[in-house]
Automatic annotation (TrEMBL), chain A:
It comes from Xanthobacter agilis. The keyword DNA repair does not apply. The keyword Ribonucleoprotein does not apply. This is Glutamate synthase domain-containing protein 2. Belongs to the glutamate synthase family. Residues 87-340, 364-412 form the Glutamate synthase domain. Signal peptide: none annotated. The lineage of its organism: Bacteria, Pseudomonadati, Pseudomonadota, Alphaproteobacteria, Hyphomicrobiales. Transmembrane segments: none annotated. Keywords: Oxidoreductase. Pfam families: Glu_synthase.
From TrEMBL, chain B:
The lineage of its organism: Bacteria, Pseudomonadati, Pseudomonadota, Alphaproteobacteria, Hyphomicrobiales. This is Glutamate synthase domain-containing protein 3. InterPro entries: Glu_synth_asu_C_sf (IPR036485), Glu_synth_lsu_3 (IPR012061).
Amino acid sequence: MTAHDSKGPAHALPQTLPRFSATFDPHTLSEIRRAAATGIYDIRGGGTKRKLPHFDDLLFLGASMSRYPLEGYREKCGTEVVLGNRFAKKPIYLKTPVTIAGMSFGALSAQAKEALGRGASIVGTSTTTGDGGMTPEERGQSQTLVYQYLPSRYGMNPVDLRKADAIEVVIGQGAKPGGGGMLLGQKISDRVAAMRNLPKGIDQRSACRHPDWTGPDDLEIKIQELREITDWEKPIYVKVGACRPYYDIALAVKAGADVVVLDGMQGGTAATQEVFIEQVGIPILSAIRPAVQALQDLGMHRKVQLIVSGGIRTGADVAKALALGADAVAIGTAALVALGDNDPHWQAEYEALGTTAGAYDDWHEGRDPAGITTQDPELAARLDPVKAGRRLANYLSVMTLEAQTIARACGKSHLHNLEPEDLVALTVEAAAMAGVPLAGTQWIPGKTGGY
Amino acid sequence: MNAFSPDITFDLATSPLRDLNEALHKTSGESNARRWRVLNPEGRHAVAVGIDAPVTVEIDGNVGYYCAGMNQNASVIIHGNAGQGVAENMMSGFVRVCGDASQSAGATGHGGLLVVDGNASARCGISMKGIDIVVKGSIGHMSAFMGQSGSLIVFGDAGEALGDSLYEAKLFVRGTVKSLGADCIAKELRDEHKALLAQKLEAAGVAPGSVDLSEFKRYGSARKLYNFHVDNADAY
């Protein structure tokens, strides 16, 4: 309200500050105007940006009178993990439980894919292909490479299948459970078009459902086929977006998976509708315990390994995910940041694109100043795969060291010895979702009594 | 039993499927065993999958899902019916189903030739990426959905939503089409297309002149959904 007083400012009535509606906040208003001007939904990359109950809402209790810590730099705290020893003749052995999630050549430049392979290989972990097939660069630079088997089957062929170290049947991802892929024309370069057998420059849609199977009974037969083709050598993962984790994980185990991958809604995507990213799926914090419960109910916990992803940023996040029962984690967005995504070094160019370093998410447009989410040869050349791979390796090492630091403080000689009893929650919501007590209480919402 | 004279006969009633596929994977162009016969498949899944050698495999009986999946270079002949996803993701070679095929026949195939003497079910040629498919009977609904390249030739009728969201696959149907999917339209059958038909049918073993090529109608992509446009919103 504006008031005018002829006696001047000294006698003006107090004014209320402009107040934005919590419902119609500035971002919402801008989206309404954008939709009205264009007539098309907003498309962007990345994962959800809303505030969610997350690993930040958990704390470790550490050692005390009844728990003995391990000596920080003297006593061993193991980090290795074996994936896929249920049926596969050649399981995967990783030195750290932090793996690199599936990201496609097409969504990412060839240099970025190579850098992911280099970084992962330095620290002894795996990287993963994406929609669009396997490139020689990433196979060549990845010591352990997981080959995604997606509904589109772009670039899928038995030669690359046999070159892979594991096969990941993708049913969904956390950013868009129930959604297919999307790669807009700006990124369909000659090479991407050839690999996907599509006309150059079209807006490419990937199917949301597999073309030759539907449901867990069919999946069991599909997995049998993949095992027969690869002579039962390769571990077979099944990846799902977090939505009904108890039943999805139980059905994946029933279908014969060696490993299940559970991706929360914080997990990123190369491109999809904003409404999908923000409104479909559940946070990873709420998905881990039901998934682990399904494995335990089937007597398969630690026999079928669980990899969780979606918003993993630090060694603390790794330790918390493992304490809740996961065997390993996967990182995507964080790995891209380690390579150089959204780096303030390119601030002027981010501003020219109408955004700012740290908020850039128009990955589908292919104009990434950091040269990562692009197929523009000049932009892509900005990323040195060797140096970027080194940065990723450094970051992965730090995460592993941080997780070990926490595990030792809890008296654990291996990251897998972390357990829910090491955790408390800071909020009622996190306590309910993670199934650990609210700090300072015995209270786990939804459960009677303590542990 | 047909007149085929095999180098190796494999009876699935007495030997495990695993042994068959492993033996087939060990064959190569230099192997002496070029002609294989498989007895008593009895609807087993994943029979003769992942072969990469110029061998001929004749299967006497019905097979389950994914027979000849991801085939390269081999000729696989099924003297019976085939379950879901026969010749899925085939790269090259030849697969023939002497009976009927279930849904998703030739799904995502990148190359080679699939011939179905009988009918194929729904989603025949779904997401096809270069494979040629000849069906002498009819096909079910949603066939050639998102077909990228290759050709689908049907002597009989096609079910609902043929060629929905089609890319550059070429579709030829001699009978009726119940309905066309989004962005799939009827196109003129010119001499170049008749030549293509003649070439594919010859490869499929159809005697020249036994089929009147002018009876086929051609269907392809209208290419209106290749780039997003708000005016096409009701098609997405």
